[in-house]
Amino acid sequence: xxxxxxxxxxxxxxxxxxxxxxxxxxxxxxxxxxxxxxxxxxxxxxxxxxxxxxxxxxxxxxxxxxxxxxxxxxxxxxxxxxxxxxxxxxxxxxxxxxxxxxxxxxxxxxxxxxxxxxxxxxxxxxxxxxxxxxxxxxxxxxxxxxxxxxxxxxxxxxxxxxxxxxxxxxxxxxxxxxxxxxxxxxxxxxxxxxxxxxxxxxxxxxxxxxxxxxxxxxxxxxxxxxxxxxxxxxxxxxxxxxxxxxxxxxxxx
Length: 253
Fold this sequence. Notes:
The chain has 253 residues and is mainly β. It contains three helices and 17 strands. The chain has helices spanning 2-19, 125-128, 227-230; strands spanning 23-27, 40-41, 59-61, 66-69, 72-80, 83-86, 88-90, 100-107, 114-122, 135-140, 148-154, 165-169, 178-184, 189-193, 196-201, 217-225, 241-251. The strands form two sheets. Strands 1, 3, 4, 5, 6, 8, 13, 14, 15 and 17 form a ten-stranded mixed β-sheet that branches. Strands 2-7-16-9-10-11-12 form a seven-stranded antiparallel β-sheet. The two termini are 32 Å apart. 35% of the residues are buried. Residues 1-17 have low confidence and may be disordered. Pfam families: Glyco_hydro_16. It comes from Salinimicrobium gaetbulicola.
């Protein structure tokens, strides 16, 4: 009986802890416009010096393809004539996170050539550049590989075609919204999809080459088109396509 009581008390304590956990940041995309206290628009084609946004992507980013509607961030990808347009936002210099449980609820856009993503970059990127700043890819979906989701980490020791990655097969990933989570600590980063752990990264060494994740990072949300990862082929018959993000919530561990 004593053991049973202790077990029940432990469950209650755990539930209470989760309910009362400190929320560091929460974005629910309410209203009808982007909260500019949290976000910046990124626009253009990545030129000069970074044409195609570093991945030979085809899209031109334009704020007109970013909207807040019905409680969601909606990024639309279109083709007009021989040009592709899409949207991208970031929280640089506005919302910066150091460690926590990061939860994102999103619905991917499906189609060959699309590359919707929710990810993070180190806030010192202007000083040290990429990959020294580090990158955390909470969710990447590549339309040419349906029913699969990528979670990846880019470090100075492994970037680009990084070994710090996991491609997960999920049969219904294109159907409705799913929850993507990263649990980020001083020692590790673990990724979850719909509550299931899919990949945990523990570095070989805790230095800036292998674990540049002991500093603040900011969020990026975008939908690229084509490029070295999302393409090179694009199915032009799919447009327009929409990528939805319901919320982002960061809880202190």
